[in-house]
């Protein structure tokens, strides 16, 4: 449920309409299918490593052990930064969502309330985070399943009085709109929608039975993606034409899910969807704070962050690491409040791109993990879970991630002109990663770890 909670978010509930508008129903389905395949391969790579060495903040540790300590250092701070900015994003979003019901209450009141709630949840222990995320995820799952079922009835004419069939798949330029560029633009959007699936690996060190539970979660990822994303995109494509201007809006009242429920005659849809999107924000903020806290805790024990962040309280929670993350999120949020929108937008773009860099880290670490495992005389029978289609899987995941990262620059071109400042914002995460990697490598004089010296200890 942690894995599924990480995948279903505002990217599906709000941004899926933009995907169909940019690429058409066929282009959106193709792009989400390719990203789904990439995520599946990435998760199987993470699963193989996390079941054999279940450590908290796992894949950052793997980067240091199996590639280069400098690589692990850059991955760790990159991942911490990515999720710390997510805390700020969710604080901002909560204020906008609550405005739907309480227009006269200042947004900062709701943002502060959400911050207190997610800090309280994470303060209870890993069990508190896991329990909350379970119920958040369950609500999102039920919403998507109900939407798909209702959408099928609407498309067939059973609800709403109009039989849509497949007419929107053949309207105008559909099913593929804007050709290859349309698919690529959806490819970028789809990638951001799947951010968070790797959280099951971050939580591996605190799982009750990682050798049993993590493979179980990994095996279900593909079917979850197929049902929840591909299924929902297919239904939206059936019900709403790609050229409907409402698809490009990010208002909850024009969410593709809201529009679909309205076509079924459910007039209360906006209120229900706003409540569900609020739960999505709580879920994302909850997960972001957990991921940041565990990453910073791991870094402190690997001499990559001050020791104070490695201290835990009687409930096993790294409170200092959590408070620093919360403070950073607040500072980023305040930046947006005070009108420095250019810097804030740069940070947000860098946060999204850094998620792909984390996936690159997983793929590279797994390729090295398997080679080192064999080089040190181990056999594949010793692995509790074995990744599918190795080495094809991690190589495909790596190449697709690189395509997405490189493709960010497309957004800097508009009407034949190149916007340098926008391009800088798109590639800021890559620049920061390079600075972290090279800086640590030069100062610490680290080298790529020889395959025969990679550390397979489970602590």
Automatic annotation (TrEMBL):
Keyword field: Amino-acid transport, Membrane, Transmembrane, Transmembrane helix, Transport
One GO molecular-function entry: amino acid transmembrane transporter activity
Compartments where found: Membrane
Record lineage: Eukaryota, Fungi, Fungi incertae sedis, Zoopagomycota, Entomophthoromycotina
Pfam families found in the cross-reference section: AA_permease
Designated name of the protein: Lysine-specific permease
Gene Ontology CC: one annotated term: membrane
Residues of the Amino acid permease/ SLC12A domain: 1-448
Record field: transmembrane: 29-46, 80-102, 108-125, 137-159, 179-200, 221-242, 317-338, 350-369, 389-408, 420-440
Membrane topology reported for the UniProt record: Multi-pass membrane protein
Main location: membrane
């Amino acid at each position: 449920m942690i894995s599924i909670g990480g995948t279903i978010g505002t990217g599906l509930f709000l941004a899926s309409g933009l995907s169909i508008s940019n690429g058409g129903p066929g282009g959106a389905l193709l792009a989400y299918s390719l990203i789904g395949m990439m995520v599946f391969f990435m998760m199987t790579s993470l699963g193989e490593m996390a079941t054999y060495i279940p450590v908290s903040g796992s894949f950052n540790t793997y980067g240091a052990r199996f590639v280069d300590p400098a690589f692990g250092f850059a991955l760790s701070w990159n991942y911490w930064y990515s999720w710390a900015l997510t805390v700020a994003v969710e604080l901002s979003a909560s204020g906008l969502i609550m405005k739907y019901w309480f227009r006269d209450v200042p947004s900062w009141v709701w943002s502060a309330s959400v911050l207190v709630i997610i800090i309280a949840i994470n303060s209870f222990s890993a069990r508190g985070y896991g329990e909350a995320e379970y119920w958040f995820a369950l609500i999102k799952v039920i919403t998507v399943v109900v939407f798909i079922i209702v959408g099928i009835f609407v498309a067939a004419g059973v609800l709403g009085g109009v039989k849509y069939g497949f007419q929107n798949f053949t309207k105008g330029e559909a099913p593929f709109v804007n050709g290859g560029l349309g698919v690529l633009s959806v490819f970028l959007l789809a990638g951001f929608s799947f951010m968070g699936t790797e959280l099951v690996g971050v939580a591996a060190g605190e799982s009750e039975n990682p050798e049993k539970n993590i493979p179980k979660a990994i095996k279900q990822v593909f079917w979850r993606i197929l049902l929840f994303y591909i299924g929902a995109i297919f239904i939206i494509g059936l019900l709403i034409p790609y050229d409907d201007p409402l698809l490009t809006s990010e208002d909850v009242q024009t969410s593709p899910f809201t529009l679909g429920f309205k076509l079924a005659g459910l007039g209360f849809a906006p209120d229900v969807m706003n409540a569900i999107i609020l739960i999505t924000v709580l879920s994302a903020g909850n997960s972001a704070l957990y991921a940041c806290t565990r990453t910073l805790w791991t870094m402190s024990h690997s001499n990559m962050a001050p020791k104070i962040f490695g201290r835990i309280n009687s409930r096993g929670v790294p409170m200092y690491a959590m408070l620093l993350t919360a403070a950073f999120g607040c500072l980023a949020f305040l930046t947006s409040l005070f009108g420095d929108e250019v810097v804030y937008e740069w940070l947000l773009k860098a946060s999204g791109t850094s998620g792909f860099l984390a996936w690159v880290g997983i793929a590279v670490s797994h390729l090295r993990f398997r080679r080192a495992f064999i080089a040190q005389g181990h056999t594949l029978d010793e692995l509790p879970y074995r990744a599918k289609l190795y080495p094809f899987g991690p190589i495909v995941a790596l190449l697709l991630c690189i395509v997405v990262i490189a493709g960010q620059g497309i957004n800097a071109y508009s009407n034949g002109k190149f916007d340098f400042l926008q391009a800088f914002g798109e590639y800021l995460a890559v620049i920061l990663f390079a600075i972290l990697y090279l800086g640590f490598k030069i100062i610490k004089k680290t080298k790529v770890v020889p395959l025969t010296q990679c550390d397979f200890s489970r602590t």
